[in-house]
Amino acid sequence: MIxxxxxxxxxxxxxxxxxxxxxxxxxxxxxxxxxxxxxxxNPNFPAPAAVKKAIVDVLDREDAVFxxxxxxxxxxxxxxxxxxxxxxxxFGTAFGDGNIIMSVGAAGxxxxxxxxxxxxxxxxVTFSPYFVEYGNYVRNYDGVxxxxxxxxxxxxxxxxxxxxxxxxxxxxxxxxxxxxxxxVVYSAESIRKIAAVLEAKQKEYGTSIFIIADEPYRELAxxxxxxxxxxxxxxxxxxxxxxxxxxxxxxERIGYIVIPGEADEYQLVFDAACIATRVLGFVNAxxxxxxxxxxxxxxxxxxxxxxxxxxxxxxxxxxxxxxCAFPQGAFYMWMKTPADxxxxxxxxxxxxxxxxxxxxxGCPGYVRIAYCVAKxxxxxxxPAFKKLAQEYGL
Amino acid sequence: MIxxxxxxxxxxxxxxxxxxxxxxxxxxxxxxxxxxxxxxxNPNFPAPAAVKKAIVDVLDREDAVFxxxxxxxxxxxxxxxxxxxxxxxxFGTAFGDGNIIMSVGAAGxxxxxxxxxxxxxxxxVTFSPYFVEYGNYVRNYDGVxxxxxxxxxxxxxxxxxxxxxxxxxxxxxxxxxxxxxxxVVYSAESIRKIAAVLEAKQKEYGTSIFIIADEPYRELAxxxxxxxxxxxxxxxxxxxxxxxxxxxxxxERIGYIVIPGEADEYQLVFDAACIATRVLGFVNAxxxxxxxxxxxxxxxxxxxxxxxxxxxxxxxxxxxxxxCAFPQGAFYMWMKTPADxxxxxxxxxxxxxxxxxxxxxGCPGYVRIAYCVAKxxxxxxxPAFKKLAQEYGL
Lengths: 394, 394
Fold this sequence. Notes:
The structure is a homodimer. The first copy, chain A, folds into two domains: about 5-45 and about 300-390, Aspartate Aminotransferase, domain 1 (Alpha-Beta Complex), CATH 3.90.1150; about 50-295, Aspartate Aminotransferase, domain 2, CATH 3.40.640. Chain A contains 14 helices and 13 strands. Chain A has a seven-stranded mixed sheet with strand order 2-8-7-6-5-3-4, with helices on both faces. A four-stranded antiparallel sheet of chain A has the order 9-10-13-12. Chain A is of the alpha/beta class. Chain A is globular. In chain A, strand 12 (about 355) and strand 13 (about 365-370) form a beta hairpin. At the A-B interface, helix 1, helix 3, helix 4, helix 6 and helix 7 of A face helix 1, helix 3, helix 4, helix 6 and helix 7 of B.
């Protein structure tokens, strides 16, 4: 009775829901503090105090009809201008308000961009492992997600593999750096090579191939590692940003899309993305949050706290004998499993540890451990990880 | 280069954008106060003071991780429970939090519901005149919008016409009451007849046909007219509500979906709608606004102010010789045009009057005049309407 697409999704959804229910069952049985739930990318650190101050300031100073009213589907011009200025200052770009569309988080932004670009049967390439929702987003518009196999040496993207997977039907390449789930930051060298592949393929096929840069983790990079700004490497780049992680506002659904003026048929793409924002039912990004984040463009979350967690968890897991990539960004640890990853994630539950199998990211043999949790959760979890390691003879 | 669907929309969009640009051009030339812009359903009255109080209260009392964090895709359980209780009290229904999904406004809710129900080629029926976006929303999921011709006698829906337009492919009927653009409130008698037609057709075809009740204007009804609550008339009813108009929060994108427990395969429909909320990129309705509106369930906007506008405009227009339906709800006047409606709307611009041709709502021969404006705008516009009437010999 419901749509066939949704029926398939409802059936596939059961694995994820089973994990939620398992977490709740374990918490009820052992107490929430004795369950080590590393399954979700929900920041445990509060939004900076500046966010509350900004919201109250907006409510105090601005007219309610303006604050809560409709504006252009692209968002408030003033907000888009302030974001453009901030990006220009940070990255030496030359954006204006005409390059920015406010979006309902990065997930909303990605859907707007994919709806703008895709015809049925068009292909969207991404590197494994990848955020599981990309497949759903691309299928929303009857596109086909094409996954480049993982480069398990260091999880940098492999441009040589990429080249063979681009076809005349390729409309876009989704790049997610800092990466969910590996924590890897794609290097400028990787990006340059990717850009060269795409330039060559655009010429070969006479098509436009967009990089869609999914950047919710841009501000979460450690040890001073630089996260290259992709529009500077490749002109057909569209950026989808979100404040979900950088300001710990995931529930607010606030982000933006950047469409550079130098992109092919910029004006048409921009106009179509504004219309897609409207017809997909977003209409516009939430208005109060638009005005609030514009006052917090210099703010970031406490990266130091994530860094502490990163080091603590990495040391703890490697001391247990596990093999992990030391993450350069985001808040995920990508750990090799000594057995089938789904079996391993199942075994971990016996010790009240919840992690997501790599299979869910198109890359079996690993699990993703989200360390956006309280430090105490990591500390308490380490003896449980030790027992899990011993079960596998590590 | 962009998708073909978007290309068509970008081309059709030009008429609406032309109106925006015309409004700005006129405002620059004559001053904003001398332009009578009745084209948009953007409430000119501010949100009640209780909304600001509620937002500040949430920020002061609740933990920031809770206020701005992820929750279930359906929304906070406490918020959904409070809404269910409020509906039960007002309408004698028996909803619980398991019947409510928080949505990104009614537009987001409609997209979630249509994505949940539609397979390509499925038909969605609605009564003319109708909100122009319905066609776009239905086409998002490759459905076909089927419009029942307008009953120009009184713009109540015509159930006898409806019957002949239901086929085995009909998945839903969208009902919008109080109606945009006519301001008509569908009577209990009309609803009962519609329900009888759908019941008979469900039996005849062995299908489930849903009423989708698009209810952003529910609270805007005048003279004590009752707006029937549709789940009580027909069990396969899904309600899409929004606080855009009732609390003057259109920019915040906050509303909800009701899926009654007695609907066919309720649990499957509910679960699928939660997944659709996620995969379409909404993820969840904006979190702070969820918590704020839950504290304002007894609040409404100043219906008296709209009522004043309604009477003032109706008297002014009929005094000029125009023929209008006296609206029972919403904030639109539906006026018969003495010439082709597009030509008439074009002529109105000469007098700095901006109205939307009925053709945009699938019903030529009328214009929609949105009176959600300042009273002074209506007062100043009446001499201009008088000149317009004289131009047409009224």
